[in-house]
């Protein structure tokens, strides 16, 4: 395959940003479209669209030279330039490596919001494992030119392929990961046997639990109210004919994207030990904070 | 004292010697410099030859031209080109070759061909260096153009040599002063152009 046409279909952002100092922001972004012989008005429309996407007002910035921009603004122009041909793939080679920590954090947050808007595959190279945990959906760990493991943050953290991966990930400092791990990474998927959705009596519930050999079940009273009850609690109840929805300890509800640290905070304030993960009225699983913390140590 | 008409004639001759040689110099230097950027072996050959050429005294160069191509205006041009091409090639090569590698990488990564990188990145970024080379070359050319009067090129050198031969101080000066003024104004004009190119992009 012709490398030039291949490269034109990959958006490329490098650490040094590499804006051409002799060209304005407009000319930098419009270079490839100009070489591809786009119409002038198409080029300027595209440039405006992209500058708006990266939060740089076009009328203020399009005629500036790179040395009239701050580091963060330059990196955003770099991103806009990489996106100009609307490539299906974006290759970012340590784009935030040379920035100061504060700016870096800000750009990472912006990157996350742009990422959802773009809907593109992004290959993001970084040496900063925390950065990869914050930004990535899947992380590939490379060592000595070989891809050792590809997986979600929690897979890498809890099931590292070998010593090298666990060393790179920093498995001995797993607790650091509470800032990045999300509910969906650490939850225990809910077994349907453990879920009671309809109005049945306590007696039926006990029978169901004994026949399924489970100790605890989740009661879905409504979309807003989920409770948990254990077999021992039920056995202590005298009025076995009453509906199960009268019993149970209310559970906290979190969404799959909530971070572990925010869940821990919620649970600490409410003094609960578990939360239920829900998405669009469907119960996905439960987070038992003690077992999660045990895994992190 | 020289007649005004003769002086004007000499100045025009002098300037045409300088600018014709400069134009030929650029035409020869550009392909050499561009090829040198792409091919290491050529760059080695070009740079060695050029460094050697630089060490030849201008007067010897003018002398050597005579047995090779004879005397007159054109042989003089040949001598001036040979003597003044060095800074053009050298600055052009350095300007084109020493572009920030990050910019070249970016250009390549974006999908520019080598020629497009040359045209849109290397060349515009090398303008200041190239103009510095042209300035230097123009000044040297002016210097050699005075010497080539001895092989019949005409120009201000003729007035100077005639003045010297006849112990006519006034005549000598009326050739030398315009030659000096030409050198100074060449320097000024090229410096201004260089500055303008630099400030335009602000790099």
Short précis:
Chain A: Residues 1-169 form the ABC transporter domain. Chain A has 297 residues and is of the alpha/beta class. Chain A has 14 helices and 13 strands.
SSE diagram, text form:
The complex is a heterodimer of chains A (297) and B (203).
Chain A: H1 3-8, E1 10-14, H2 25-35, H3 40-53, H4 58-61, H5 71-83, E2 89-93, H6 101-118, E3 121-125, H7 129-135, E4 139-143, E5 146-151, H8 153-158, H9 163-169, H10 183-186, E6 188-189, E7 195-196, H11 202-211, E8 216-220, E9 226-230, H12 231-235, E10 249-250, E11 252-254, H13 260-270, E12 274-279, E13 282-288, H14 289-296
Parallel strand pairs in A: 1-2, 2-3, 7-8, 11-12
Antiparallel strand pairs in A: 4-5, 6-13, 8-9, 9-10, 12-13
Helix pairs in contact in A: 2-3, 2-5, 3-5
Chain B: H1 4-38, H2 40-55, H3 58-69, H4 73-97, H5 101-110, H6 114-147, H7 156-165, H8 169-201
Helix pairs in contact in B: 1-2, 1-4, 1-6, 1-7, 1-8, 2-4, 3-4, 4-6, 5-6, 6-8, 7-8
* Shape call of chain B: elongated
Q: From the coordinates shown, what is the CATH architecture of chain B?
A: Orthogonal Bundle
The total count of helices of chain B amounts to 8
The total tally of domains of chain B equals 1
Protein name (chain B): Glycine betaine transporter membrane protein
Organism (chain B): Candidatus Methanofastidiosum methylothiophilum
GO cellular component, one term (chain B): plasma membrane
InterPro entries (chain B): ABC_transp_perm/SBD (IPR051204), MetI-like (IPR000515), MetI-like_sf (IPR035906)
């Amino acid at each position: 395959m012709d490398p030039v046409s291949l490269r034109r279909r990959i958006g490329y952002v490098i650490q040094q940003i590499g804006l051409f100092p002799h060209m304005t922001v407009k000319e930098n972004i419009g270079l490839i479209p100009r070489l591809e012989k786009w119409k002038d008005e198409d080029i300027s429309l595209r440039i405006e669209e992209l500058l708006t996407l990266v939060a740089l007002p076009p009328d203020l910035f399009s005629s500036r030279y790179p040395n009239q921009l701050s580091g963060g603004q330059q990196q955003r122009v770099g991103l806009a330039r990489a996106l100009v041909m609307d490539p299906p793939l974006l290759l970012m080679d340590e784009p935030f490596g040379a920035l100061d920590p504060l700016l870096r954090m800000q750009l990472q947050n912006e990157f996350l919001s742009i990422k959802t808007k773009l809907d593109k595959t992004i290959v993001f190279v970084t040496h900063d494992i925390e950065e990869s945990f914050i930004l990535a959906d899947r992380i590939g760990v490379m060592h000595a030119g070989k891809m050792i493991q590809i997986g979600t943050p929690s897979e890498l953290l809890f099931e590292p392929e070998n010593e090298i991966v666990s060393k790179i990930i920093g498995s001995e400092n797993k607790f650091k990961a509470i800032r990045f791990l999300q509910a969906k990474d650490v939850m225990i998927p809910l077994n349907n046997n453990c879920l009671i959705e309809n109005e049945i009596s306590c007696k039926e519930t006990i029978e169901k639990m004994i026949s399924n050999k489970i100790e605890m079940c989740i009661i879905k009273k409504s979309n807003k109210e989920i409770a948990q009850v254990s077999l021992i609690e039920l056995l202590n109840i005298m009025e076995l004919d009453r509906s199960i929805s009268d019993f149970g300890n209310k559970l906290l509800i979190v969404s799959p994207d909530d971070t572990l640290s925010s869940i821990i905070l919620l649970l600490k304030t409410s003094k609960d030990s578990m939360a239920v993960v829900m998405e669009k009225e469907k119960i996905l699983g439960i987070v038992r904070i003690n077992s999660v913390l045990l895994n992190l140590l | 004292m020289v007649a005004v008409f003769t002086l004007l004639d000499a100045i025009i001759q002098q300037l045409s010697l300088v600018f014709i040689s400069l134009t030929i110099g650029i035409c020869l230097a550009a392909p050499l410099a561009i090829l040198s950027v792409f091919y290491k072996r050529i760059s080695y050959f070009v740079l060695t030859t050029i460094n050697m050429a630089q060490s030849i005294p201008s007067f010897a160069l003018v002398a050597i031209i005579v047995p090779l191509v004879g005397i007159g205006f054109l042989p003089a041009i040949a001598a001036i080109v040979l003597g003044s091409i060095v800074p053009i090639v050298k600055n052009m090569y350095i300007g084109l070759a020493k572009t920030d590698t990050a910019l070249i990488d970016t250009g390549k990564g974006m999908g520019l061909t080598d020629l497009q990188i040359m045209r849109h990145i290397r060349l515009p970024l090398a303008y200041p260096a190239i103009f510095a080379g042209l300035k230097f070359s123009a000044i040297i050319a002016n210097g050699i153009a005075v010497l080539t009067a001895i092989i019949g090129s005409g120009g201000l050198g003729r007035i100077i040599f005639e003045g010297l031969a006849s112990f006519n101080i006034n005549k000598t000066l009326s050739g030398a002063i315009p030659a000096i003024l030409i050198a100074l104004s060449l320097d000024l004009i090229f410096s201004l152009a260089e500055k303008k190119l630099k400030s335009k992009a602000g790099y």
